[in-house]
Specification:
Structural class: mainly alpha
Number of helices: 5
Order of helices and strands: HHHHH
């Protein structure tokens, strides 16, 4: 006859499973430098960002969660903002180039190389703007995914710590 799971054995199983999952998720090579920012090109991705947030929260217990998130993820956010700013500034360049091209076409004083340069610069600015917007979206979405994963990992780890503490105190 098979014996059913009791509450104590279910708690023990959950603790063992959580420990096994946390060990298997840990990256083989963590390239954290100890600074308060996260580089997005580090191998490991989410476990690195989650451990960076964990260390930041552990080292500064009185700091708010928002301040810790900004301290860990400030570098990718600044990079994304720089791409967005450059893209927005490039938005104003094609109308000026087009106005200059139309002025040159209406007058006989403009040289032929200037006309070719203006005609060549118009599609180049559109291409550069599209590339910058795509880089902005990629960085913003990647940072958002890493931030959400780090928050989820932190919340789950704290909940697991409370469960372990309650399991030790109850049993």
């Amino acid at each position: 006859m098979r014996k059913g799971l009791t509450t104590a054995s279910a708690k023990g199983f959950a603790c063992c499973l959580a420990l096994r999952v946390s060990l298997s998720v840990t990256p083989l090579q963590e390239t954290w430098t100890g600074s308060s920012s996260l580089s997005l090109d580090t191998p490991g991705g989410l476990p690195v960002s989650a451990s960076a947030l964990k260390r930041r929260l552990a080292s500064r217990a009185d700091e708010s969660l928002l301040r810790s998130l900004v301290a860990v993820f400030w570098r990718p956010m600044v990079n994304a903002a720089a791409f967005k700013l450059a893209s927005d500034l490039l938005r104003y360049l094609p109308p000026m180039l087009l106005a200059r091209l139309l002025l040159c076409l209406g007058s006989t004083t403009c040289a032929l190389p200037e006309l070719y340069a203006l005609a060549f610069a118009l599609p180049l600015t559109a291409l550069a703007q599209a590339l910058l917007v795509n880089q902005y979206f990629w960085l913003a979405l990647r940072t958002g995914v890493l931030l959400r994963g780090a928050l989820t990992a932190t919340v789950c780890e704290r909940a697991l710590a409370y469960r372990r503490r309650d399991a030790c105190c109850d049993g």
